[in-house]
Amino acid sequence: MRNLIFTLLFLFSCTIAQAGKIVTDSIVSGNLCATVKYNVYLPSHYSPEKHYPVVYLLHGLSDDYRAWRDKGQLQIVADELIETGEACEMVIIMPNAGGPDTHRTWNGYFNMPGWAYEDFFIYEFMPAVERKYSAGGHKGQRAVMGLSMGGGGSTVYAQRHPDKFSSCYAMSAWLEGNVRNEKNEDDKLFWTEKSVRDHSALEFVRKADEATLRDLRTVKWFFDCGDDDFLLDLSTELHRLMRQRRVKDELRVRNGTHNWEYWHTALRTALPFASRNFSGI
Q: Does the model's pTM come out above 0.90?
C-alpha cells in the first residue's frame, strides 16, 4: 500500500511539474489612452532564453481577457496537446477587447472613433508582448484565432495583415452584419456593430484584386462553426467565396451551437492547426 501511495504521489508531482501557467499582465496604450490587460499562457519549462511561436487568441462580444482561461479552460487543453506532441510549445496571448456592459464599454478589434484598437493591436501590442515573452517576431511564428467577435477579428486581421500571420482559425465567426441600433454615438454597441459591418470579411474577398488574393494565399485558413450556430451561414458563405477566388481554406461544421462547450473542443483542433503551420522555429 505504501509503495502504491508513493507511486501515485510521484506521478502527481510529475503532472504538476509539466503544467504550464497563465499569468496576467497589462500594457499602457498610447493609441487607446488606456491600460489594457491581457493573459498569457506560458508552456511548462518556459524560459525567456528560448524563443517561442505565438498564438493570439481573441475573445467574443461581452467577454474579456479572462474568458479563454476561465470559460474555455485554455490551460488544460494547451498542456495536454503540448504534452502529447499534438501541438508545439507556444506562447498564447489573450488580450482584452471588451466587457459585459456592451453599451458603455468598448468592444471590438477594429478602429472606431475614440477606440483605435487595430492600430493598438498591430503596431503597439504585438511588438511589446513579443519582446517581453520572447515569442513571435515574424509571420512564420505567429497565428491568430478567436471566437465569435474574436473569430471575425482574427479573420480580418489576417486578411488586412497577411504578412504578419501564418494561419487563422476562426470559430463561430462574426464576419459581417447590420447595425441594429439607431445611431447613438453614446452607445458603444452601435460602434461595435458598425465596425463589423464596415470591416466585412466577406466583402473583403469579393473586392480583392489579384495582388491581394496572392497575399491571402500565403495564410492558412480554417473556419469552424456549429450546425446550430446562428452565424453558420457567414462561415459557409465566406468558404464559398474563398473557393471561388481560389484561396484555399478548410471549413468544419460540427454538431453544436454558439457556446463554450463548442469552443473548448475547437481548441483541440485549433492549436495543432497553428502548430503545423508555424515555420522558421
A: yes
